[in-house]
Amino acid sequence: MTGRAGAPARLEEALDWLDHHVNLEAIERGRADATPTLDRIRRLTELMGDPQRAYPVVHLTGTNGKGSTARLLTSLLGSRGLKVGTYTSPHLERINERLTADGEPIPDDELAEVLAAVAGLEPLMERPPTWFEIVTAAAFRWFADVAVDVAVIEVGLGGTWDATNVADARVAVVTNVSLDHVAILGPGLGDIAAEKAGIVKPGSTLVLGETDPVLAAVFRRAGAAEVWERGSAFGCENNRLAHGGRLLDLRTAGAYYPGVFLSLHGAYQGDNAAAALAAAEAFFGAPVPDDLVRSALGAVRNPGRMEVVGRRPLCLLDGAHNPAGARAAGATLAEEFAGADRRVVVLGLLKGRDPAEMLEALDPSHIVLVVASPPPSPRALPPAEVASAAANLGLAAEATGSVAEGVALARARAGPDDMLLVTGSLYTVGAARSVLVERGAWG
Predict the structure, then answer these.
(1) Does residue 1 fall inside a structural domain?
(2) 14, 60, 437, 441: least buried by Cβ within 10 Å?
(3) Structural domain total, the chain
């Protein structure tokens, strides 16, 4: 999933070089290569002249919702006329998606150029950087090259030891904390919270979405100059279903915004919108004007997250990659898509996920078929294991050799009034999206 399809020769060469580096997204964690350190990325950015210091940064972490919050925040910051660089991960279809300026992915020639610039510095390093460190450094460099006014940076994993943490953020955002990546971040929620709190820097404002008192205390101790907490400093007061999205009453420290339309599905997006709005207010030092909030939130798009890509059958793509995400997806299906009682589910997971737990969260009583398909990753959970777990829940299940095969099978089995849901790993969703949307396969 490095986005080679149709790439010019120069970018092809750059991506080949990139892929010869250790990619912790694509291998089993816990290897020696995964030893936590910021030494390599610090050395790399130092050789580049520390481009991450050329613009103010808003840094986001959290177990779920940080990608959506990043998109919402990008739209809000851009509404004030700022040029906004946004760095997110993973990508759905092409690596270019990770680096955007004003919502537009980095062009192929510019991506090839910035990767070549990083490649030229590698011989000066004692140890070669990892795949993610290279892409992160490339993002910092590109944002400086195109002179962004602000960069919205999403962590790859955790916080303290994430490569993005060489940036000193003016505003830090924590969406929430739940159990995920416990083998890396720690066995308990407190350990995970402490790791995520590492993005909080002295003098910054922390926008804290996590409300558990014990976990919130971990973040309060992280050293921010100000802590804005969900419930007291900001929040989503009302969250109602609307055609094509949600209708929200949002409150920040400095303003109240009743009846704001958000063009995203899922009640949980109300919390993400409130956090993004609070972060924008913290960044500007003043509330965002009402009309700009309405235009920004009413136009935002979030591919691969409760994205409707087809009708008859209704086809949804949702990267519910962990149990908390699956529970949120299940709640959204029950509230917003209750008319489609029969669901054909294409499910592809990475190793370490419990397919039974994921399926239980999606309400097996509505699932008529599970199509187990492997996400395009070396860390893919074998489809046979996913199908076996589904069968143990009493569900009909079939295993396929690829996401494209799984989508084709699901489309053949789903009736016009059924729902076809592609979910699990974002790698699964991205592969399905390339078939259903980019290749025009939806008829």
Answers:
(1) no
(2) 441
(3) 2
The domain in which residue 105 lies consists of: 9-299
253 bridge partner residues: none
Which ranges in 2-107 belong to alpha helices (H)? 9-18, 39-47, 66-78
Total residue length of the chain = 443
Nearest to 414 by CA among 293, 327, 314: 314
Q: What is the pLDDT of residue 1?
A: 38
Which residue do the tokens 């003016």 mark? 170
Using an 8 Å Cβ cutoff, are 58 and 153 in contact?
Answer: yes
Strands of the sheet containing 307-310, edge to edge, are 307-310, 314-318, 419-424, 343-348, 367-372, 397-399
Query: Helix (H, G, I), strand (E, B), or coil: what is residue 12?
Result: helix
Look at residue 174 and give its three-state secondary structure: strand
- Beta-carbon-side half-sphere exposure of residue 237 (alpha carbons within 13 Å): 13
What digits encode the pLDDT tens for the residues 102-124? 999 999 999 999 999 999 999 99
Q: Are 282 and 205 in contact (CB under 8 A)?
A: yes
Please name the residue that has the structure tokens 């995400």: 325
CA-CA-CA-CA torsion sign (95, 62, 160, 426):
negative
Q: Are 332 and 320 in contact, with CB atoms under 8 Å apart?
A: no
